[in-house]
Every structure is written in structure tokens, then in C-alpha cells.
Amino acid sequence: MKRPPAVAGMFYPSTEEELRREIERCFLHPLGPGRLPERRHDGETPPILISPHAGYMYSGPVAAHGYLQLEDRRRPSTVIVVGPNHYGIGTQVSIYPGGEWVTPLGSVPIDMELGVRLTEISDIFSMDEVSHSREHSIEVQVPFLQYVLGEFRFLPICILDQSLPTCLEVGRALAEILKERDDILLVASTDFTHYEPHEYAAEKDGKALEAIKSLSPERMYEVIERFNVSMCGYGPVAAILEAAREIGSREATLLKYATSGDVTGDRSSVVGYASLKIERPR
After folding, report:
1. If DSSP codes are grouped into helix, strand and coil, which group holds residue 75?
2. Is 39 within the bounds of a domain?
3. Which residue from 72, 103, 128, 266 puts its CA 20 to 30 A from 40's CA?
4. 263-268: long-range contacts (C-beta < 8 A, 24 or more apart)?
5. 14 lies in some domain
6. Is 189 part of any domain?
């Protein structure tokens, strides 16, 4: 079973050469880290990442800050990407059921054994390909991972039910996996405030980011509700915050925040993007 790209040619280029150039442009962009990653993979365990998922033109430079963190870390054997379900199709918490995902940079095999292990830990997960058929929030992470890591196995998890109890349950199951294995990279995919003036977006997002940095999903939900933060992937973020907290991590570090207005110059109606990392305890 092969899952073809759903947003190639829209969110990122549809040919291998153009896509590689676009990823490199993101790393070298003024809003990016300013250099290309060195492909050294012989260091410590990779961090947990939070990464944006808009078109590369808009959020790619911010995403590059997170993926640069992988250059001098041990190469993960499997990458778990948790993203929101934007389209309301499929099951509540869906693991893609086997095969491989295809991008212009090649195919990535699904770690089916790990998927089955998660379903053994918690019945909150189901195997469902429909949830993933159109979803971009997970797909846009894959070319960055292919560019930086080369070969790896992949486990996409798409969350439709972003209620706090559901996402805490997902996080506790992911924590069990992280306790069992130190060769896993965990990524949560989210954008922040949508379609508000830059100054309002930055202020609201700053409050949400403070909660995230403290590894408190409960506080993050309170901030989102109180200040009406239109953050689309709050559920995946809550899940990885709970996983990080369960394994003994202490804080998240903000690597970069920017809005689409920083890219286009139009700050009247923007979307917020952030990259963060969470170190696993040694």
C-alpha cells in the first residue's frame, strides 16, 4: 500500500530537484537558521520537536530551525509524526496501516510493528488510512525528514478528537514507547493563530508558547480557551507534552517564532508558526 503525496505542487514543489532546492532555501532564508544541516548522526538521542505545517514558502524557514537540531544527533530508526485532522474524515486517533508514504524525494516505509505496539498499549488508536488520505499536517514534515535524515521508518498519527482527555491518553501511550526505545524521534505538527493582525497573533501565541515551554497541556488548553487562540494542532502538541512530561523532560525551548506577515510583509492577517524542541532526559 502506497500513500501518494496529497499536497505536492501546492504546499511544496512536486519534483525532486525543485523540492531539494526549496528545502535548502528554507534553511538559508533570513527567517531560517542561516545554514544547511551537516548530516552527522552519531551524537545523543534526538529531541522531541514541535513543527509548523503551512506551505514551505510561509512556514518552511521556521520549520528548518527544528530540523537543524537533528544534524549531530543519533539517527532515529523511526519517526513518529502526530498531526491534526483538518478534514473531519476517518477515525478519532488514526495510525496509518502499513505500506509506505511517497514524496518527490522517495518512499518511506511505515513501521507497522510500532503501530501495532501502540494499539496494544491503548485502544484509543485505530488503524485507518482514510484519515490520512488528504491530510497535509503530517505530509509536509516528511520531505524535511528525508532531506536531513536520509533513511528512516515512519509512523503517522492523525488526531481528529483533540479533546484534552484523548490527547493525554495518546501522550501516555507515546511515553511508553519512548521509555522502551531511545531510537524514536517524536514530532508534533501545528500552526498557531490564524488570520489575525500580526501584533494580536504574536501576543496570543506568546501566551500559548509559555504554557508549552512549561510542558503543561492543561495550561495550554486554558490559554487557548481564554484568549481564543486559533491553534490548529493543539491536540498533537498536548500529546507530545504529556509524553515528554511522563518520561521526565523538564521544559521546551522555543527555537523560532514568526508569522506569515514576516514573510510577505502583509501583517494585516497572518498565521503564526513556531519550532520548539524538548530534550529527553539523559
Report:
1. coil
2. yes
3. 103
4. 263/31, 263/57, 263/58, 263/61, 264/58, 267/197, 267/198, 267/199, 268/197, 268/198
5. no
6. yes
